[in-house]
Amino acid sequence: MKNGRLALWTAAAAVASTVYTAPLSARTIDLDETTSTLKEWVETERIISRERADWEVERSTLRDLINVYKDELEQLEEIITRAEEDTTAVDARRAELTERLDDLREIQSVMREQITAEEARVRELVRYFPEPLRQELAPLINRIPRPGRDVEMGLSQRMQNIVGILTQADNFNRSVTIETELRETESGSIAVTTMYFGLGIAYFIDGSGEHAGYGVPAADSWKWTGDPEYRPVVRQLFDVYRRNVLATYVGTPLEVTDIKR
Hints:
By secondary structure, the protein is of the alpha+beta class. Among the domains are: about 110-170, no CATH class; about 175-240, no CATH class. Helix content is about 65%, strand content about 15%. It has helices spanning about 1-125, 130-135, 140, 155-175, 230-240, and strands at about 175-185, 190-195, 200-205, 210-215, 225. Strands 1-2-3-4-5 form a five-stranded antiparallel β-sheet, covered by helices on one side.
């Protein structure tokens, strides 16, 4: 009986040992896995934390870059806007200048026609100038463009040339001019002194007082008339001018002609 009880306790102890040993082994396995899992979780959290920190830095950098690009974009847009405004202003100015240029070309065309007409009138007028005045104006007269020839001077130069001729002609016409010239007579060419009263009439006399007369404008050359009966009057005229005698009224010959004949 005693041996039977001992066997029973032995069997119970073995069963108990089996029952309690199994849970202990299971607990040991769960702890290792848990520890490993914790280590992995901690490592993961560390990686996540590091990645988050790196991302925060990158995000801050990207945000700064975005702000910089925004500023640059705004500046570029402002530059483009100003450029468009400048382009619009330039186009408007170009259109204005083009219109003014067209107006100036039209004015220039009108002026060219007027100056050409004035040159023709001056060229015709010069034909009736006395020889001393024509010689004085020769440089200006020669600059008048000839019909059918190319004109090298500008409009302003051509206008100045016309004004120069007319100004000197007006000065001559407002004064009394004394010139020593050669005059053709029946006895040949003689030296005479000629007194021009502007562009209207002139009187001449030679040194001996034997030849005297007057001249009036005519195309290409003045018309000169000599007659012995004019000698006393013309001599008196020169004496008064030279103050050899007291000033007095002198009745001189006068001829009114149509200078276009």
